[in-house]
Amino acid sequence: MQCQPVAADDLQAVGFLAYCLDRTRSVTGPDMGFTPELADVMKNKGYSRNIAGGYSTLGPTGRPTAYGVYLGLQEAVAFKYGSRSLEGKTIVVQGLGAVGYPLVAEYLAAEEVTIYCADIREEQVHRLTGQFPDRVKRIEPQEVLTFEADIFMPCAIGGILDEKAIQELNYKIVFGAANNQLKAVEPQEEIRLASLLAERGILFQVDWIHNAGGVIAGMEEYMYGEQASVAHIMEKTEKACKLGTRENLAAAARQGVTPTERAYRHYASLIYR
Predict the structure, then answer these.
(1) Which strand (E) or helix (H) includes residue 118?
(2) What are the residue ranges of helices labelled H in the chain?
(3) Four-CA torsion 73, 240, 118, 142, nearest 10 degrees
(4) DSSP letter at 142?
(5) At what angle do helices 62-81 and 244-255 cross, to 10 degrees?
(6) 31-56 confidence digits (pLDDT tens)
(7) If you write DSSP's letter for every residue of 206-268 in order, what string do you get?
(8) pTM beyond 0.85
(9) Which end of the chain is more exposed for a tag (fewer CB within 10 A), N or C?
């Protein structure tokens, strides 16, 4: 769904969004312009239970998502280089929103790394360069696909990696939070594009293996309400994103396929058996 930003006090629009959620039996959370304030209004005023991630319960779901992506990245670095340490690595983060900002501020900046950040909202970049002047540097948004660094972490919009972009990448690992980073509309096309990344020696796996922290947080809040636990969320995120990534990368190597292809084969066999 795409629309202009919705103000939390525009109750007609809030009601319509709630109607769409309930009629389609969807559950969602704040993202890409849909704010935590909007989620709180929708729940607290009785419009719909099918939205999580406001400020009133566990807080925005971007933080557990960032945590899972960080854990997944450590596993990818261990697989590629033999150690989970990020020390000495150069990392490009595209997008400093609900996930990208805490990913940098709470996790990556604590490591001995150099982080290059790009966002169309300059104030987000300036906040991080001011807070971590020895760690964080600014690059232009249009530079990210041709910049040279060890790791690329897309955390903004999806569909940024088509054939042309893949051939121009100068990274060893692509491991970000953005949904649907490959420019594909169905799994077979994702698998094909993932194989092009592998041919260039770039480690990549489909995002939903390691960016599931927000979904885990949303389900915790949906199921348990005021009794929902941040500790449970982090524990489940570690299992899904850290151990899930470790298992997926190792299994893909044993099977001689890309991590993306192995992920689709494995989870489809569990879901559709």
Answers:
(1) strand 114-118
(2) 11-23, 36-44, 62-81, 100-102, 122-131, 163-168, 187-199, 213-224, 230-237, 244-255, 259-271
(3) 90
(4) G
(5) 40
(6) 877 888 999 999 899 999 898 888 88
(7) -GGGT-THHHHHHHHHHHHGGG--HHHHHHHHIIIIIIHHHHHHHHHHHHTS-HHHHHHHHHH
(8) yes
(9) C
Q: Of 53-62, 70-79, 158-167, which gets the smallest average pLDDT?
A: 53-62
Question: Token digits for 212?
Answer: 């599931």
Tens digits of per-residue pLDDT, 6-27?
899 999 999 999 999 999 999 8
φ and ψ at residue 103, rounded to 5 degrees: -60, -45
Q: How far apart are CA 92 and CA 139, in angstroms?
A: 9
Which amino acid, residue 232?
H
Q: Rounded to the nearest 5 degrees, what angle is found at the Cα of 124, between the Cα atoms of 177 and 74?
A: 35
Residue 49 sits at the vertex; the CA angle it makes with 46 and 54, to the nearest 5 degrees, is 90
Opening angle at CA 78, ends 76 and 81, nearest 5:
105
Question: In this structure, which amino acid lies at residue 197?
Answer: L
